[in-house]
Specification:
Blueprint: E1 5-7, E2 10-12, H1 19-22, E3 24-29, H2 34-49, E4 53-58, H3 62-70, E5 76-80, H4 81-89, E6 102-118, E7 133-137, H5 143-154, E8 163-167, H6 170-178, E9 185-188, H7 192-200, E10 205-207, H8 215-223, E11 228-232, E12 245-257, H9 262-274, H10 276-280, H11 305-313
Parallel strand pairs: 3-4, 7-8
Antiparallel strand pairs: 1-2, 5-12, 6-9, 6-10, 6-12, 11-12
Length: 318
């Protein structure tokens, strides 16, 4: 199978099988996002230790480069496990369009987020969201509609039980919250936007606790495959966490095409696995990244055989 390499100047006609010789591979990014920062760190490490050059390739969004990778026109990308699962199985935001060639290479850090409300709000549980105003739609970031749906399911509710306030993306939803036009938003623990909302909104913000057992919890996890419940304790760095709170946790993974040569994938996996500390030193977002979870397996997301073989050879595959 011949696959064209994506390089900074555009698509260069070349066989993917020649990537190892060319010593240049691309990794998809969405500029100005956390994924951009992740790819920059990985590119530097792989280029320094993988005997190849990895070059970030800006694209219009994660879903865009997932398709490009699946078509064999780009070697690598980064996505969260929920979006990856949906892509592989043709569900959720990939409904009706499977991307069967996607494979995992490495597991990166875990992110944690949840639904934040005003601290003085009468919303104490997910069931209390009934009749409240929530951002919805998220045409520019469709995965977050599923975060809202999952949160409502946690309270035994659906989108029909709330007032849906149209929002294209996360930034717009946060602005609506600060303007008092919605009663809660999805946001990340310890993030800049959460800290800003906590400072802007009178009385600050508070993350609401999720139900972690029972049928409602199961429906929540089914709505966002690959997500898990994570308990967060109060910390000066975590605005909105006033007591031990169960919120969402999820990992990011490095993706590739199933036909990317084994040698290329092995060198990328090896560079990441052996240089965790170097990668962690690039930004605070990597705090949860560690060698013990680089080979973490995720239900419904197959690894590239070369990555699996490498992790088995170093005893990291569990």
């Amino acid at each position: 199978m011949r696959i064209r390499l994506l390089v900074a100047a555009g698509f260069a006609a070349a066989a993917l099988a020649g990537a190892a010789n060319a010593q240049t591979v691309g990794i998809g990014i969405t500029k100005g996002t956390a994924l951009d920062q992740m790819a920059a760190a990985l590119s530097k490490t792989v280029s320094s230790h993988g005997n190849m050059q990895m070059r970030p390739q800006p694209m219009g969004g994660t879903q865009t480069y997932i398709q490009v990778i699946d078509e064999g026109k780009l070697e690598f990308g980064i996505a969260n496990v929920m979006q990856t699962y949906m892509a592989v199985h043709g569900t959720g935001i990939s409904e009706g369009h499977k991307f069967p060639n996607i494979r995992a290479v490495a597991t990166l850090m875990a992110f944690r987020n949840g639904l934040a409300v005003a601290n003085n709000s009468d919303i104490k549980t997910t069931a209390d969201l009934k009749g409240k105003r929530l951002p919805y739609g998220f045409k520019g970031a469709p995965l977050f509609r599923y975060f809202i749906d999952a949160t409502l399911a946690n309270g035994g509710l659906s989108a029909a039980d709330v007032t849906q306030v149209p929002a294209i993306g996360l930034a717009q939803s946060w602005n609506l919250f600060k303007q008092g036009k919605v009663d809660g938003v999805i946001t990340a623990i310890g993030s800049g936007p959460t800290t800003e909302m906590n400072a802007t909104i009178s009385g600050g913000v508070r993350f609401i606790d999720m139900e972690t057992t029972g049928p409602r919890a199961e429906k929540t996890l089914d709505t966002l495959p690959g997500i898990y419940f994570a308990k967060v304790s109060p910390d000066p760095k975590f605005a909105g966490v006033h007591s031990p709170t169960d919120i969402y946790g999820y990992y990011f993974v490095v993706l590739t095409h199933k036909d990317v040569p084994a040698d290329v994938v092995t060198r990328v996996a090896k560079a990441i696995y052996e240089n965790v500390d170097e990668i962690k030193a690039t930004a605070a977002m990597w705090i949860s990244f560690n060698a013990a979870t680089v080979a973490k397996q995720h239900k419904g997301i197959p690894y590239h055989p070369a990555a699996e073989a490498f992790y088995k050879s170093v005893g990291a595959w569990k």
